[in-house]
Amino acid sequence: MEQELQVQRKREAETKQESTIPARVFLPVTDIFETEDALTLKLEMPGVAKDRVDVRVENDILTIEGRMDFGAYESLRPLYTEYNVGNFARTFQLSSKIEQERISAALKDGVMTLVLPKIERAKPRKIQVS
Amino acid sequence: MAASFSSPFEEIFALQRALDARHESDWFGSSTAGAGAFPPINIFQKDGDFVAIVELPGVDKVDLQIEAKESTVRISGRKEIGLEQSASVHRRERAHGAFDRTFSLPIQINSDAIRADFVDGVLTLTIPRAESQKPRNIKIG
Known about the structure:
The complex is a heterodimer of chains A (about 130) and B (about 140). With about 130 residues, chain A is an all-beta fold. Chain A has no helices and nine strands. Chain A has one domain (about 25-120): Sandwich (Immunoglobulin-like). Helices cover about 0% and strands about 40% of the residues of chain A. Chain A has a four-stranded mixed sheet, with no helix packed on it. A four-stranded antiparallel sheet of chain A has the order 2-3-9-8, with no helix packed on it. Chain A is elongated and about 75 Å long. Chain B has about 140 residues and is mainly beta. Chain B has a domain at about 30-80 and about 100-135: Immunoglobulin-like. Helix content of chain B is about 10%, strand content about 35%. In chain B, strands 1-2-8-7 form a four-stranded antiparallel sheet, with no helix packed on it. The longest helix of chain B has 17 residues, at about 10-25. Chains A and B meet through β2, β3 and β6 of A and β1, β2, β5 and β6 of B.
C-alpha cells in the first residue's frame, strides 16, 4: 500500500526582530541530507518566484527569504480557504566545514535546492594502513 | 465620522457570523469525495468565475492529473522527493507519496473551459460557470 499524502500545517516563523511588512512569515518545510562532498537543503516555498528569493550568508548564518507576490490575490474574493498564504523565511547555522563561497541555489516548482559544498579536509577519506 | 469607534459587541457578532459561515458553507461540505485532504485548496471568486489555488510544491507537472466533469474537479498525482541512496538524512520534514482529491462545486461549471496554470509549485484553476448558470438580462418588451 502506497503512503498517502497528508496535509502539513504550516509553521509560522518566530522572529526575534520586528517585521516591517504586514504579512505572515512561515517556515519552509525543509529536508537536509549529506553526501560525501556536500550538504543539500531542500526548502518548499510554493508560490515564490525566482526573483523574489533572497539567499545570503552572514556571520556563518545562512538566511533564505522568499516573498510572495500578493498582487495576484488582489482581484480575488475568498469563498472557501484551507490554508494561509505568506512569506517564507528560515535561517541555518553553518559549520566551519562548509565552503561558503561555493554555495549554489536553484528554484524549481516551488522547491529551493541549496548545495553547500564541504571543504576539502572535511570530506571523508580512507587511511591506508602501512 | 460617526463610525470611527468600534463596538466590542459588533466584533463578537462579526466573529460569530464568520464561524457560522464556515460551518454552514456548502462549499465541499460533506461532498468531498477524494481519498484524502491533500492538497489543501483555497477557492476565490473573480468576476463570476471561480479560481481554485492549490499548493503543490515539488510536484512535477507530468505527475499531475486534473479531471473535470459536470460540477466536480479531481486533482490527483504523486509527489516524489528524489533522495540519493548514499545520502545520510539530517532533517526530514517534506512528505511524499500519492494524492487524490475530488471536490464538487455548488454550481454547474463549464468543464471544457477550465484553465490550469502550474507556476512555482502552485496550481491555479480558473473555473468558469456553465452558460446556463450565467445571469441573463431580460428586456422589457
